């Protein structure tokens, strides 16, 4: 079994498979470890938020954390649309008209006019004709890759892609290239030449833990040179990047390339739930009839579909939110940098403060929390073992006062833990 003295060094992953230990004993061992983390103030998970997703939230009802109000840096609601009156009203109206659920999977009776509307809207959003919806963004990725790639094929992943992409690759061949490293990608593509039926390179537009963006132009050149295809998950780029919020493809002038398979979510900028794939019509049709999650899992509820339709309209009609988000990002990044914190290469609404040591990162997160600043402490396996960081998501609706409150909390935290390097003058 697991030696309790090793607890300080362990992570959840160490409890995934304990040799010769069956499920109930494994649950007991894990329970003991969770209690240890809780007793040491390291179990900052599943805090009960009473107020909903907004720039400030109230936490109440936990055993080990203080109840109170917190500035929210943990929601990917970049434009604040979960609270926008028009988005809320669209959801309410949809419930009044259509009820609360879809009742079946899309293939067998669960495809409604509001789904068709959303499918059309998201295809048009990228200037294309066809799209498919999934009930979560996670499934959009995993289902698509599972349906497209089989044993004769290979997925070539940037190592920093989202977990849902790794999940989609469980039944095909996989190779990962070092994050945004073109030499390594080319090496793999060369090595795979003629060996596989389909080679699909998969990247995120914006990387969810570092906030940096894909070198997509260089990647696309390599993809074409070696006869591969490209899938981009732009969950964190849409609504944030590009002059009209169409994401990294718009920013890089690549929206016209019809060979790129685009996946994304309605759960971040669009303040709702669900995922989508936009690609050439025949490929979308194949997914509609061959992806298991589309055949066997219920479609998204009317409220969420219509909230997403409304949020997409708002992005065009109220561009001030996207502009304000970028003002907030610039102000906050400058504040953190001037104190000497390492924020890596972020160019998006995701801002990490890279610390490295997991215990120190947990302490820093806790100090910020005690000062009313709710951030995420990110550790292995979400990132490499020595790459722990505080991760924050910016919102257009954060006020300058809230950003200053957070920057002051970072300053106080640093006075205690000495994490930041002095900025070079
Ligand atoms: N892709 C990326 C890059 C993500 O960050 C996430 C969510 N964390 C997903 C996909 C999954 O989306 P959802 O939460 O809507 O299922």
From TrEMBL:
Its cofactor is pyridoxal 5'-phosphate. The keyword Isomerase does not apply. SUPFAM superfamilies: PLP-dependent transferases. Residues 70-410 form the Aminotransferase class I/classII large domain. One of its GO terms (molecular function) is transferase activity. Keywords: Transferase. The keyword Transferase applies. InterPro entries: Aminotransferase_I/II_large (IPR004839), AON_synthase_class-II (IPR050087), PyrdxlP-dep_Trfase (IPR015424), PyrdxlP-dep_Trfase_major (IPR015421), PyrdxlP-dep_Trfase_small (IPR015422). This is Glycine C-acetyltransferase. It comes from Sphingobacterium deserti. The lineage of its organism: Bacteria, Pseudomonadati, Bacteroidota, Sphingobacteriia, Sphingobacteriales.
């Amino acid at each position: 079994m697991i030696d309790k003295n090793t607890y300080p060094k362990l992570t959840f992953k160490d409890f995934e498979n304990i040799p010769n230990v069956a499920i109930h004993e494994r649950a007991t061992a894990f329970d003991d470890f969770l209690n240890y983390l809780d007793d040491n103030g390291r179990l900052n998970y599943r805090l009960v938020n009473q107020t909903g997703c907004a720039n400030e939230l109230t936490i109440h009802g936990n055993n080990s954390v203080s109840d109170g109000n917190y500035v929210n840096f943990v929601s990917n609601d970049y434009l604040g649309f979960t609270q926008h009156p028009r988005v809320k009203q669209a959801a309410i109206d949809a419930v009044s008209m259509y009820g609360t659920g879809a009742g079946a999977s899309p293939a067998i009776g669960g495809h409604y006019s509001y789904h068709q509307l959303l499918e059309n809207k998201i295809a048009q959003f990228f200037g294309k004709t066809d799209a498919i919806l999934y009930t979560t963004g996670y499934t959009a990725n995993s289902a698509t890759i599972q349906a497209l790639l089989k044993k004769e094929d290979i997925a070539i992943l940037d190592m920093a892609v989202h977990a849902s992409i790794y999940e989609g690759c469980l039944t095909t061949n996989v190779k990962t290239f070092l994050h945004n490293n073109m030499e390594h990608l080319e090496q793999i593509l060369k090595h795979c030449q003629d060996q596989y039926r389909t080679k699909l390179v998969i990247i995120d537009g914006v990387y969810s833990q570092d906030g940096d963006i894909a070198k997509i132009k260089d990647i696309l050149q390599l993809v074409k040179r070696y006869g591969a295809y490209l899938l981009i998950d732009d969950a964190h780029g849409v609504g944030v990047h590009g002059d009209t919020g169409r994401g990294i493809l718009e920013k890089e002038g690549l929206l016209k390339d019809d060979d790129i398979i685009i996946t994304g979510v309605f759960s971040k900028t669009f303040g709702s739930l669900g995922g989508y794939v936009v690609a050439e019509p025949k490929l979308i049709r194949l997914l509609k009839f061959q992806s298991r999650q589309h055949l066997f899992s219920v479609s998204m509820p009317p409220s969420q579909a219509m909230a997403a339709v409304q949020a997409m309209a708002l992005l065009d009609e109220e561009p001030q939110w996207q502009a304000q988000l970028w003002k907030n990002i610039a102000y906050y990044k400058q504040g953190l940098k001037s104190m000497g914190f390492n924020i890596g290469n972020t160019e998006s609404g995701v801002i990490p403060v890279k610390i490295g040591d997991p215990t120190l990162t947990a302490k820093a997160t806790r100090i910020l929390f005690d000062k009313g600043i709710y951030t995420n402490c990110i550790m292995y396996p979400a990132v490499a073992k020595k790459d722990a960081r505080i991760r924050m998501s910016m919102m257009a609706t954060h006020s300058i006062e809230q950003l200053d409150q957070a920057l002051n909390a970072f300053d106080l935290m640093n006075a205690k833990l000495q994490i930041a390097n002095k900025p070079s003058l």
